[in-house]
Inverse folding.
């Protein structure tokens, strides 16, 4: 074990040099690409461009929650209304049969207490951004700059990125994360990055795990939107449930705070139940809402502060890019 590793502490952040400058590079690259590729009024997200559905849900915290978990939104027995956006991870709208990283973004409404950053539309909301793979492709903000530049520069950018051996592990992780699915409600979703849980020495990751059995897979794979149609069929029949869980950092070396390419291996503990309600969600009004919602891990209670370099970069990047997109679409 290195001296540096011996000095690591549970729950503590370790800032990298030039994080602010690298974050601004990401913002500039993405906004340039959105300006170039989308007309005003139809500007999609940089990632997770294809929304399968924006659905109503309830999020209910367990009544017998252990005392050391009771921070921020985790109030025993508390129930929140929520909007959940289900999506493909790609930067473009593609056929659902293609392998992809998938996403679940949860927005809890009317969370009491002081928020670190308030959502413009829902000031007391708390967001959880999760994907269908337990790690990200790049460990730190500096590497994310290279990846975003490659994606935003189209085919040639991706070719040049792939030819550089320094990027090969990123490409490997990307390929590993891209899977086919025939039902979005059958997937596990992970926050990937860590968060404070009340105390300075307590950090967690979040996860949402399917709790509804015997969901049917989509069968009409010729339809490019079969995942949306499968969601419509499931939610016309009844509610769909998820277990919302937390995973505590137990070792600052084996479960690093600053490297989101390392999967934590500590046990998962259920803290809440998500019920995605029986509903008809595929309407012009709800679809417009889903496209205009802005999600950020920093829309959260002060006791649930996002941690690590990737989350620190998200604070400025999500705010700037989300504001640009919404203003461009609502003028």
């Amino acid at each position: 074990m290195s001296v540096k590793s011996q000095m690591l502490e549970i729950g503590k952040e370790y800032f990298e040099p030039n994080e602010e400058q690298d974050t601004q590079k990401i913002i500039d690259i993405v906004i340039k690409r959105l300006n170039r590729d989308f007309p005003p009024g139809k500007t999609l997200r940089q990632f997770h461009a294809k929304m399968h559905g924006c659905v109503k849900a309830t999020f209910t915290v367990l009544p017998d929650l252990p005392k050391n978990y009771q921070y921020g939104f985790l109030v025993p027995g508390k129930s929140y209304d929520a909007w959940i956006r289900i999506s493909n991870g790609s930067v473009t709208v593609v056929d659902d049969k293609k392998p992809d990283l998938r996403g679940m973004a949860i927005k809890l409404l009317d969370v009491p207490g002081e928020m670190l950053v308030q959502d413009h539309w829902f000031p007391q909301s708390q967001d959880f951004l999760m994907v269908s793979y337990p790690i990200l492709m790049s460990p730190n903000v500096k590497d994310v700059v290279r990846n975003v530049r490659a994606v935003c520069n189209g085919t040639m950018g991706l070719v040049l990125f792939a030819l550089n051996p320094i990027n090969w592990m990123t490409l490997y992780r990307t390929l590993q994360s891209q899977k086919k699915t025939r039902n979005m409600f059958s997937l596990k979703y992970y926050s990937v990055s860590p968060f404070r849980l009340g105390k300075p020495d307590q950090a967690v990751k979040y996860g949402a795990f399917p709790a509804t059995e015997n969901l049917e897979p989509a069968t009409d794979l010729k339809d490019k939107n079969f995942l949306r149609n499968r969601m419509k069929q499931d939610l016309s029949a009844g509610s769909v449930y998820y277990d919302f869980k937390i995973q505590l950092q137990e070792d600052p070396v084996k479960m690093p705070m600053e490297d989101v390419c390392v999967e934590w291996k500590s046990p998962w503990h259920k803290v809440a139940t998500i019920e995605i309600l029986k509903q008809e969600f595929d309407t012009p009004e709800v679809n417009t809402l889903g496209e205009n919602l802005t999600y950020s891990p920093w829309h959260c209670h002060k006791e649930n502060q996002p941690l690590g370099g990737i989350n620190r970069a998200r604070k400025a990047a999500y705010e700037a890019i989300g504001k640009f997109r919404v203003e461009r679409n609502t003028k």
